[in-house]
Each structure stands twice: as structure tokens, then as C-alpha cells.
Amino acid sequence: MKKATRITIVEVARRAGVSLGTVSRVINEKEGVGHELRERVLSAARALGYVPSFAAQSMRSQSSRAVGLMVSDISNPLFSATVGAAEEVLYRGGYNMILTNSRDRPDKEKEILDLFQRRRFDGMIITLSKEEDPATLRVLSESRIPTVLFERESTLPLDSVATDHYSGAHQAVSYLLNLAHRRIGLITVTQAALPGRARGLAYAAAHKAAGVPVDASLMSFDGFLPDAGYHAAYRMLVSPRPPTALVVGANQMPGVLKAIRTLKLSVPKKLSLVQIGDTDVASLHQPPLTAVRWEFAKVGAAAAELLLAKISGAVDGSRPRRIVLPTELVLRQSCAAPAV
Amino acid sequence: MKKATRITIVEVARRAGVSLGTVSRVINEKEGVGHELRERVLSAARALGYVPSFAAQSMRSQSSRAVGLMVSDISNPLFSATVGAAEEVLYRGGYNMILTNSRDRPDKEKEILDLFQRRRFDGMIITLSKEEDPATLRVLSESRIPTVLFERESTLPLDSVATDHYSGAHQAVSYLLNLAHRRIGLITVTQAALPGRARGLAYAAAHKAAGVPVDASLMSFDGFLPDAGYHAAYRMLVSPRPPTALVVGANQMPGVLKAIRTLKLSVPKKLSLVQIGDTDVASLHQPPLTAVRWEFAKVGAAAAELLLAKISGAVDGSRPRRIVLPTELVLRQSCAAPAV
DNA sequence: GGCTGTCAATGAAACGTTTCATTGGTGCGA
DNA sequence: TCGCACCAATGAAACGTTTCATTGACAGCC
What we know:
The structure is a homodimer. The first copy, chain A, has 13 helices and 12 strands. By secondary structure, chain A is of the alpha/beta class. In chain A, strand 8 (245-249), helix 11 and strand 9 form a beta-alpha-beta unit. Chain A starts with 8 loop residues before the first helix and ends in a 10-residue tail after the last strand. The mean pLDDT of chain A is 93. Chains A and B meet through helix 4, helix 5, strand 2, helix 6 and helix 11 of A and helix 4, helix 5, strand 2, helix 6 and helix 11 of B.
């Protein structure tokens, strides 16, 4: 039979014949308690099956030993490696990770941020659907919880850890321009946040540097919609002046590949292809896809490490730190000069 | 300037000129407080920027409104969809999800289970690296936290939600046997847990039903090792009597495909291929891979729903519930009769 | 030998809520 | 008009820790 009532520190103290304070210090491995007593307390605790109450501890110590993570979509494979690495670092630092899914809905984001406040988390790592949503920014600026923006940047003085999406896209587009492509499609996510915005800017800058005019109809930024990759690619590819190359976000690529297959276009003969974010889909495709690569796990680990540093006060908060992680272009067999 | 000290319910009560209890009831939207007072409390709370302390609430109410999730590997794409769906259900039910990564290490699993106890979680959904690890089972059987096993089953009377891995593998192997394959390789994860064990049993049963002897060298169960897929496939394929078909777990498939490519084998001409777990890699491969399919999200949602039902007491705990979700074989173009 | 300093251990206050027994006031039926 | 039931609101106890000022004992020093 299980005891009906929870064992508290009081029972342990009584059983060991010592005071509450003593038990507390034994539990927390603080010094200043004699060897014999320590043993007595420990064995009493064991005998009773005592488990300290986190709620009481965190209420008293004003620390939840927990960190909130808010991402737009956990199921996104690009995120899951990142999230895994963040958890690893946080756990090792003695913090637990609470994971929430905002599904890119600003109202849910606000709700989650409120929740993080109530939970008195020691820190949070967040992704925003729109970097400039006023309601969200207000909550954020009033928050006193150490925060690290993740794959996002803000006008607010917030620390951030992000991949260098600008350089990544710039490399990809420049590479294709160098191969003599003049009509390059870009299929990615919304410009309301860093990744899409940086890619759009890089796309334009690379074209400008090469003296090639930009055709707005070759850019699609609604990658978060279901089947967006398919629709965007299909629309571009059946247009009167179709692109000869496509730069595509990893999440849009499955849809894009379906469109290509539907239209029976051969890669790279008819169409060159670069994927942003190197996944199994890219490396295992036939032909293997040239891709912009970065280490997903590193982004997560860096975000978690920065947050831990902020929590411990090791990093001064006077001026926001922005960590940008590098990308590289992995050349495979999905690109060629455009057919003449 | 931010206030140096946290606003508590006491300040709100003072400012609104009411008692603590009244504020508490307003905050918790309980009835029995007049309209005018309610407004006064609300506006006082707003003015002061009051945010209730979760720690205090959960200490008093003995509920953490949180659920722990322990998976072996978050980065595993098969898990991430599942985890996402579980989070969705739990969040909607008013619970937060704490995600932890056991990395399949029994010692870390035990540590995490202890943590879940201390945190007084209202429930937990867990994956075990070995279903029969005695130390883990002891912790589990002494735990009073409602628990749902996830893709695992135990000799302990624990509720579980899992995919029907047995039928899935049976379908795949039978299909290949029907195509006249006589040497079929199986590459998957450890038999110490449900998925690998069920697949091994199904493999043997299907062979027995077809009157085909089983060759143990055609089974590999160390899919959790890095590059296991590659090594297992390579070893089998270069052996004197290589398999003519391979049934491969989704996580091992990238490695297997690399081995196939290295050996320049054509699929399905030289080798038939079935993937267990239908991912983008399978559907986008050339040729598209025949796969055992199930809905990842449904498994997570079902686990979360069962757990919520247990927490609320809607389901009686006298006898464990085992929910098994169906699989189907999706026929694509990676299988053919063996070359003669 | 008295004083001081050190160390182990104690006991009570404090953390911020919820809950519950009470109080005070109001309306209604007898 | 009294008593009763009802309702809004109060005040204090309780939840399970940590922390901090205090006590008691003992050794070292002048």
C-alpha cells in the first residue's frame, strides 16, 4: 500500500531527530553538517522515500530551473535537431526545457509568452512568426526573463542566435548566376522574419552585383502555407518565361520536387536546383542536390549556451549580443549551365 | 525603470482595497464575487502588472499543470511529428510539456524519471531504451505519476500507445515473400524494445507461414549505432549469398541508400526495398520507395489524450489500456520480383 | 579563567498562493 | 419583527521548502 500522503521534509527531520534546516542542508549538499548526522538524515530520507517538492523549492528560491522554448513548428525537421541540441545543453546546465508550438500564430505566441512569465522561467529561447508584431514586442520588452531570439532578429535590443541566411542565399544565387542562369526562382518562407527576409535581400543583392534585373514573379515567400512549394514551383515553371534554376527552402523542397516530377523536368538538364538547409532529402536525391549547409545542432547549442550565460550573469546585458553562424554551399549534381 | 520587487497578490489586494481571497477568486475566474469588485481587482492587477506565481499556485494546489515527455532522441524525425502532436493536445488541455532526451542511456533515463518525480508532474509519456531494465522498472513501479508508455510495452501493468509494428513488418515481409524473394534482409533497431522486437517476430512469423527458412545473418538490430544502416546493408550485400530485398527502418534508410549507391545496385532490378515509416526520403526517392505507413502525429495525439484522460480520472486505472494504431503498406516502385 | 572565534545545529520567518471557516449584511417568509 | 437562508467578502491557516539570526558547545589565546 502506498502512503496516502506525500512525505515532506518534516517527516524526514522527525525521523532523523534533527531540525528542518539540517535536512535541507543535507539535501542540497551544503556544508556545515556533521558526518554522522548527514548519514542519519540520508538514511531517513531513503527509508521514507522522500522526494523534495520542486514547487516549494522554486517558490522559496525564486528560480524555476526551467527554460521555455517557443518554436513555430516542432515537427519541422530543421528545428528538431536544433531543439534536441538545445535540450542537451540546458539539461546539462541543470535546466529543464519546456517546449511549445506557436504554429506561427501571433495570438498563440502572446499567450505562450504570458505563460512563460507566470511560470517564472529562468530564461526563454523563442522564434517569432513576425519579428515586428507590436503586441508581441510589447510583451517582450516588458518581460524580465532573460531571452534569446532564435533564427530571428528584432529592433528591440534582444540577444539572438541565427544562421547566416543572407550569406547562404547569396552564395547560392551567385553560384547560379555564375553558371549563366538569368532567371532564378526563389521559393522560401515569409519576409516577416529573418530567414525569408535575408534570403530576399541576398537574392536582390546578388542580382544587382551581377547586373541582372530582378523579376518579382520569380520570388515566393509563402512557404508556410501547406503545399506552398508545389504551387509556387508549378506556377513559375509553367509560366511563359520559366526559371532555369530554383533556390528552395528545405521545407518547400518536397513540394517543389513533386511539381518537377509532375512536369517531368530533368534536373539539372532543364532545371538547376539548390536547397537551402541540407537534409537527407537533398543528399539522397537523384541527382544529389546542391545545398546551403549549416549545422542545425550548433544553432540550438549556441542559443542554449548564450541563454545559460545570460542567466548566470556571465554575459553583460547592456548591449545585445547577436551570434551568427556560418553557412557553406555544398556542391552536388543538381546544377548545370542553363540549356541554350 | 523596472520595479525591483515582484508584484504579488498582496499588493493587488491592497491597491484594490479587498482581501487576498477575493483577488484569488477573481484571478481564477471563480464565481461569488460582485461585479464592481471584480472590475476593481482586475484593473488593479493590470495597473500593477501583476502576474501570478506558478510555483506558489502549484505548491498550494498540488498540481504542476505540466507533463514530462521522455524520448530517446528528439532529433529523430519520426519522433518530432509525434512530439509536436502531443504538445498540441497537452497545451490545449492546459498542460505544458517538458521534453527530455534520454539518448537511449538507461542511467539518464533513471535520472530523468527521478526528476519527473521531484517536479511533481501531473503525468508523463515515456519511451524506454530497454523495456526490461530492472532499475528503471523499479522507479516506474514506485512512481505515483500517471504514465503512458510510448511506442513501448512493458510487463508492468502500464498503459501504452504504440504503432502496430508487428503487422507493419509482417505486411512488408509477406509482400516480398509473395514476390518470390527468398533472401530478405531486415535492418532495424534493438530488440530490447517494442519496434525492433515486433519486427523481428513478424519477420520470423511471415517466413514460417511461407515455409521459408530464416537466415539470422540477414537480420540487423543495431540501428541506433551511428552509420548502422550503412554497415549492416554493406555487410549483407557483399556477402556470398546477398539478400534480394531489404526491409529497413526509416532511420537506417539513409545509410542503406548510401551503401546501395556505393555498390551501384539498381532498385528494384537488383534489389527490392521497403522502408518502415513513411518519410519524405521514401516518397521522394527515385524510384519512390514502397513503405509501411502510419500517422506519426496520431500516435502522439493518442498518447497525450490517454494521459489527459488518466489525469482527469476519466479512465480507470485498474487494468492497463494498450492502444495500438494501424499501419498500411504503401506500394510504390521499389519492389519487383527477384532477378533470376 | 574569562573572552573570543569557530562550528554544528536549531527554530522561526518568509516565499505567494488557495482554501475554508467566519463574518456581516440583505431579502424573504412566517 | 424575528429568524433563516443566502451571498459577498474577509482573515487566517496551510502548502513544503530555504534562509537567517540565534544558541550551545568547545577549543585556543592572552
